[in-house]
Amino acid sequence: MPATASLSQLAAWHTEDHAELADLFDELGLALGSDDVTPREQIQQVWSIELGPDLGAAGQGLLTGYYEPLFDGRLRRDECFNVPVYGPPPGLEVRVDPVDGSTTYGAGTAGQTLRPFFSRAEIDAGALDTAGCVIAWMRSAVDRFIVQVQGSGLLRLADGTQLALGFAAKNGHPYTSIGRLLIERGEIPAEEMSLARLREWLEADAARGSALMRENRSFIFFRRTSPERPEGRGPSGRHSVALIPGRSIAVDPDVYPLGSVLWLESRAAGLSQIAFAHDIGSAIRGAHRADLFFGTGEAAGVRAGGLMADLRIHRLVPRVACS
Question: Parallel, antiparallel, or unpaired: how do β-strands 70-74 and 152-156 relate?
Fold first, then answer.
């Protein structure tokens, strides 16, 4: 059984913004202690820290960042906006396991074993040209790729209004990090890798960039969603909660159920804080792996795209659960 400890035993716990956290716990429907104590004590009365598993042979976890991109887009194709954004196409099956709630995507019909749907390369070659599932148009294949990797995005339309794109489904192929491929091939040093550096490489040679993007066979389909959300919040994550910049993270749901309250520690990022498991991601696997949400727009993208740091995760559990 994992060892547990009081939050007060964490040195960095005393520097947390306890008033902000108490408000967030209340907003998210998480238990708090009595009203006649400080916010810090309200949390400590109910929650303890459950020490995470060993880091293993790798010696460290990985913390990265993500954000909600904002790009120009159109509802009709024209000479400049000719990169399609697809909704779920005909023939794509989405199955939810009734036991563990996991979701599987692929091609097939009821009663059949699913097989992978069209790959990114096949879709780019026109496999969905007559499927009638385009929901918007973008200027750049690189922009679309970034929205797919981030899992959501906002499109600024010609009249100044915004269209929000939310995750709907994927094609069932495994995700491949093209940034990792460039590091392994010696194209970009690991210490220089960032979203901006990746974009620069992709756009420097369009044919070369397209070929690399096709090596990630995974392809994301979107749905139109409302751009309205609480002030200062992002889109809804997979936990159906509007993402909280600096507090919401994507996790491996096989390790941490959505809604979990977690403690993050990263020396390189100078970060020790509580975060909430509100999202998932294809590249997020393992007990010490997380993606921290930074917000919407270019500035958030710069911060998110430059984060690659060590990480250790501990879970917060109700005190009654560990007594």
Answer: parallel
Cα distances (Å, whole numbers) of residue 119 to 25, 160, 210, 230: 41, 34, 14, 36
Intervals of the chain under pLDDT 50: 1, 321-323
SS3 of 158, please? coil
Nearest CA among 220, 214, 219, 221 for reference residue 121 = 214
Give me the amino acid identity at 218.
S
Query: What phi and psi, each to the nearest 5 degrees, are found at residue 224?
Result: -75, 130
Dihedral, CA atoms, 14, 20, 22, 24, nearest 10 degrees?
-130
Q: Say if strands 248-251 and 271-280 run parallel, antiparallel, or are unpaired.
A: parallel
Give me the count of residues in the chain: 323
Region at 90 (left for phi over 0; alpha for psi -120 to 50; beta for the rest): beta
> What is the pLDDT at residue 109?
74
Q: Residue 290, SS3?
A: strand
Closest CA to 172 of 253, 216, 254, 117: 117
What is the spatial distance between Cα 66 and Cα 86, in angstroms, rounded to a whole number?
21
- Residue 322 pLDDT: 45
Coil, strand, or helix at residue 269? coil
Residue with tokens 């460290």: 60
Cα angle: 247, vertex 68, 215; to 5 degrees: 110
**pLDDT (0 to 100) of residue 59:** 65
- Is residue 301 a contact partner of residue 69, using CB atoms and an 8 Å limit? yes
